[in-house]
Amino acid sequence: MQVILNTNLEGLKLIGRGKVRDIYDLGEYLLIVTTDRISAFDVIMPNGIPMKGYVLTQLSKFWFEQTKDIVENHLITTDIDQMPEEVRKHKDILKDRTMMVKKAKPYPIECVVRGYISGSGWKDYKATGTICGIKLREGMVESEKFDEPIFTPATKEELGKHDENISFERMCEIVGKEIAEKLKELTIKVYKRASEIAEKKGIIIADTKMEFGNYNGKIILIDEVLTPDSSRFWFKKLYQPGKPQESMDKQFLRNYLETLDWNKTAPGPDLPPHIIEQTSKRYLEIMEILTK
């Protein structure tokens, strides 16, 4: 499968380009093309990761199916042959990396749920004893499991800006208390369902972020869900609280970038072949474990 960094598809109207996805307007629907771009620290790297767009699309499709009884989602089909003719003529580029979806109005919130204390949550806890305004018990160690998953929202910022962790109270101010409470409830429910499925396959989902939108007056799950771009995956058999865990996700790339003399602003550094290869391998492996 060829590495796709950008798409400019003749006969289709490009309306948005995110860190990873190119979005086209199909009139009643949207076409979301998942490229092989990878970002870290909100900077898009110059190199693509082979098979990444395929992995993210297949995993999202899997999890949308597993959670559709909890919350409706935006996915209509990932089958190119069921899409309009103007899409099918680009089959060589789009096959296995493309979703045709409902047009929803996104809520401007990253809905983050944490089952374990890690990453930015661990840094915040060490500094303040809290995460997103939530006071946590003293004496927690890195990678420790919470008694119950916690909801830690963030703002959804434009490309090139860092998403900012916010309190639930601030989220209520942005989207309204009723919507905020419903988004929190749905996020935790989806996370718990996915965690049960993953643990049976030997995988811990330490944390994940989701996005929701309004579609015909209903809240639906949109974008991607429970992929290595949006989640932290650990091997259950290797899990040891008190230290960082081996990750089957984008954390592998972040760890490499932390060793460089780079100020975490664009442009991103060129990635060496072994980092590209290992990142691709990890993405494929977690997909195969979770969807088998």
From TrEMBL:
Transmembrane segments: none annotated. Residues 15-266 form the SAICAR synthetase/ADE2 N-terminal domain. GO terms for biological process: 'de novo' IMP biosynthetic process. Keywords: ATP-binding, Ligase, Nucleotide-binding, Purine biosynthesis. Gene3D superfamilies: ATP-grasp fold, B domain, Phosphorylase Kinase, domain 1. Pathway: Purine metabolism; IMP biosynthesis via de novo pathway; 5-amino-1-(5-phospho-D-ribosyl)imidazole-4-carboxamide from 5-amino-1-(5-phospho-D-ribosyl)imidazole-4-carboxylate: step 1/2. One of its GO terms (cellular component) is cytoplasm. Its EC number is 6.3.2.6. It comes from the Bacteria. It catalyses: 5-amino-1-(5-phospho-D-ribosyl)imidazole-4-carboxylate + L-aspartate + ATP = (2S)-2-[5-amino-1-(5-phospho-beta-D-ribosyl)imidazole-4-carboxamido]succinate + ADP + phosphate + 2 H(+). The keyword Ligase applies. GO terms for molecular function: ATP binding; phosphoribosylaminoimidazolesuccinocarboxamide synthase activity. SUPFAM superfamilies: SAICAR synthase-like. CDD domains: SAICAR_synt_Sc. PANTHER family: PHOSPHORIBOSYLAMINOIMIDAZOLE-SUCCINOCARBOXAMIDE SYNTHASE. Belongs to the SAICAR synthetase family. This is Phosphoribosylaminoimidazole-succinocarboxamide synthase. The gene is purC.
